Amino acid sequence: MAGDQELKLLGSWASPFVIRARIALNLKGVGYEFLEEGLGTKSELLLKSNPVYKQIPVLIHNGKPICESMIIVQYIDEVWAAAGPSILPSDPYDRAIARFWAVYIDDKWFPLLWKIIIAKADDEETAEAAEQVIAGLQLLEEAFEKCSKGKDFFGGKSVGCIDIALGCYFGWVKAAEKMAGVKLLDKEKIPLLMGWAERFCSADAVKELMPEVDKLIEHGKMVRARLNAAATN
Amino acid sequence: MASGGEVKLFGMWASPAVRRVEWALKIKGIEYEYIEEDLSNKSTSLLEYNPINKQVPVLLHKGKPIVESLVMIEYIDEVWNHNPILPEDPYERTKARFWATYSEGKCRDAVGKVYFTEGEEKENAIKYLEDIVRVLDEELKGKRFFGGENIGFSDLVLGWMAFWLPVAEEVASFEVLDSEKFPWFASWTDNFLQVPVIKENLPPRDKTVEFFQNYRQQRLAA
């Protein structure tokens, strides 16, 4: 790609949404400047680039901001189409399936996981949320079987849209297990997904991005404390 | 063009999510079979094609189901290339998708909050909704539609606000659509509802008000 292209990514090491954008950029072999936002602070650049949500990630390409992680991922796939493997499938129906699962994961499944992460100790809702997270993983196990068609990833031979949409949360799933003392990842129940998760986390485009679970737990506890403090104020 | 029988849409007459898919199909001139669902008694077909969400709309193309209205519209746009709905330029596409996401997240939440609250909570919800509309008003500055001179993806997805927000105002007794406070948004709603494909594909206003009155009462009683 042209050397005069300027690419910045505003993000944080812990955010699964930011990890999505970084995986996509890695898949395409595109260089970028990573600007780390601290927890609880928002830089001038972030507020200027994403005035509506004031959230990371924001990709800034030649001065033009792009917000929302899956929108960023699709943009990267379209602009650097020739530079690396396709992230979205080529067939329109397969693309619709991929987009459907991305919506399911973000709108239905992740809020349940988040409930577990920020729950206070002995919260009754945690057990119920855990059951629903597991039920969701069961659906994703079936989806994996259909989409992968025997290959390594949802996207087939290489990491694709659903892999990115789901895989980015993997560290947080493990963190949630430890924080709430629940078992979410059961090799008996989701054998295909467990195999996939290992392959995903060791893929070249992913391996250096997945945060350590202990660090996520620490981070999660801070987020939880801030949320609970805000709620009581 | 799709021949009869190839495209089916499961819907409910009052649903904005269903209507926006119909607008997309009409823009492309695609023939489709429409199947009205009774949501209190969902058909086995609907549950078979959308087992996860169990909701309308569901689009069936050559027997294969697609779920989620935004996903459906992108699918329709990709399979039938004429009369494009999404822009061609990748950066413009991100903007189109951004406002679509804004509709389904922030806008729907904001209107929902006004619908289902009362008293001080409702007053706060109305202020919040005004902030949401203000953002849209600013985005529309100098533009006829979100898509520019012609309606596009963002317009189709946000279009529910042009019809169903005034319905909500009547049902839940509030006012947010002020053409002095939000002149660009007000013009957009007028222009949008005048587009032939939209104008000819709206549910009857009185029936819709009645439907949502009942819906609101049921939810508030629960």
Automatic annotation (TrEMBL), chain A:
Any one GO BP annotation for this protein: toxin catabolic process
| Residue ranges crossing the lipid bilayer per the database entry | none
Q: Which GO terms describe its cellular component?
A: cytoplasm
Start and end residues of each GST C-terminal domain = 91-223
Occurrences of domain GST N-terminal (ranges)? 5-84
Any one Pfam family match given in the protein's UniProt record, by short name: GST_C
Q: Which SUPFAM superfamilies match?
A: GST C-terminal domain-like, Thioredoxin-like
* N-terminal signal peptide: none
Q: What is its EC number?
A: 2.5.1.18
Q: Which GO terms describe its molecular function?
A: glutathione transferase activity
Keywords annotated in UniProt: Transferase
Catalysed conversion reaction: RX + glutathione = an S-substituted glutathione + a halide anion + H(+)
Family, per the entry?
Belongs to the GST superfamily. Tau family.
Q: What is this protein called?
A: glutathione transferase
Could you tell me which species this protein originates from? Answer: Cocos nucifera
TrEMBL record, chain B:
Name the keywords, alphabetized.
Answer: Transferase
Q: Which SUPFAM superfamilies match?
A: GST C-terminal domain-like (SSF47616), Thioredoxin-like (SSF52833)
Q: For this UniProt entry, what's an example GO CC term?
A: cytoplasm
Identify the InterPro entries for this entry.
Glutathione-S-Trfase_C-like, Glutathione-S-Trfase_C_sf, Glutathione_S-Trfase, Glutathione_S-Trfase_N, GST_C, GST_C_Tau, Omega/Tau-like, Thioredoxin-like_sf
Domain (GST C-terminal) spans: 89-218
- Might you give the EC number(s) for this enzyme? 2.5.1.18
Question: What reactions does this protein catalyze?
Answer: RX + glutathione = an S-substituted glutathione + a halide anion + H(+)
Q: Which residues form a coiled coil?
A: none
Tell me where in this chain the GST N-terminal domain is found: 5-84
Question: Please, which domain of life does this record's source organism belong to?
Answer: Eukaryota
GO terms of molecular function: glutathione transferase activity
Please give one Pfam family short name: GST_N
Instruction: Name the GO terms of the biological process aspect.
Output: glutathione metabolic process
Give the protein family.
Answer: Belongs to the GST superfamily.
Q: What is this protein called?
A: glutathione transferase
User: Organism source for this protein?
Assistant: Cocos nucifera (Coconut palm)
